[in-house]
Amino acid sequence: MDILADTNVLLRRIHRGDPQHRITQRALNRLIKEGNRICVTSQNLIELWAVCTRPADNNGLGLNMHQTERILARVERTVVRLPDSDSIYSEWRRLVSTHGVSGKKSHDARLAAIMNIQNITHILTFNTDDFARYPGITAIHPGSLAAPDKIRRSYFSTIRRGQCWNTELVAEVLRRCGYVVFEASNCTGAVAVCERLGTYNGKGPRYANETTNRLA
């Protein structure tokens, strides 16, 4: 099966310092091992180039042209680039009109349009909600594909070090690993209040950082 990789997946794949790099790598490896083809669009590659060359103080990676050239070439060797066609615009136009898409979400609508034209039904993305409005498209979060034990250890380790910068993402990954997450807050306090399914002791939820040694 062909699976489209969103730009946020490509970025985390090439950026080893990103907290979600390992999860992204495991998810891609699993998909490929199962016989799937990882696809991208020219839009994904253009966005990748833009983020790589954008200054670090402007939410970019601050890489020079030579570094970005090498990264883009490496990505191109490992994915299938889908062709552009005139029909993409008309399908995109239909989607944004039908679903009332506006602003930055219009870029996601173009990916959805390409997927419809290419008969691709699944996209690997950290922003699964962005594609929920499109019928026939299934958005897969990388965290749902990596081994649960490895995810749990990785995220609880990150929690211990106080390096969680996206607690909502942590909460989502914990849910996908079989936890009930009751609340999430910033890293200066309790990162997530959770309890493993089937082990609730009737005394109320416990903080994740209090159960790290037991669960990790």
Tell me about this structure.
This protein has 216 residues and is an alpha/beta fold. The protein folds into 2 domains: 2-144, Rossmann fold; 148-215, no CATH class. Helices cover 47% and strands 13% of the residues. It is built from 9 helices and 8 strands. It has helices spanning 7-14, 21-33, 42-53, 65-78, 87-99, 105-117, 148-161, 167-176, 212-215; strands spanning 2-5, 37-40, 80-81, 122-124, 138-140, 179-184, 192-196, 206-207. It has a 5-stranded parallel β-sheet with strand order 3-2-1-4-5. Strands 6-7-8 form a 3-stranded antiparallel β-sheet, with helices on one face. A hairpin with a 7-residue loop joins strand 6 (179-184) and strand 7 (192-196). The longest helix has 14 residues, at 65-78. The radius of gyration is 19 Å and the shape is globular. The relative contact order is 0.13.
Features:
three-stranded antiparallel sheet; single chain; 216 residues; 47% helix; alpha/beta; 2 domains; Rossmann fold
Topology, element by element:
Blueprint: E1 2-5, H1 7-14, H2 21-33, E2 37-40, H3 42-53, H4 65-78, E3 80-81, H5 87-99, H6 105-117, E4 122-124, E5 138-140, H7 148-161, H8 167-176, E6 179-184, E7 192-196, E8 206-207, H9 212-215
Parallel strand pairs: 1-2, 1-4, 2-3, 4-5
Antiparallel strand pairs: 6-7, 7-8
Condensed summary:
The chain is α/β, with parallel strands linked by helices.
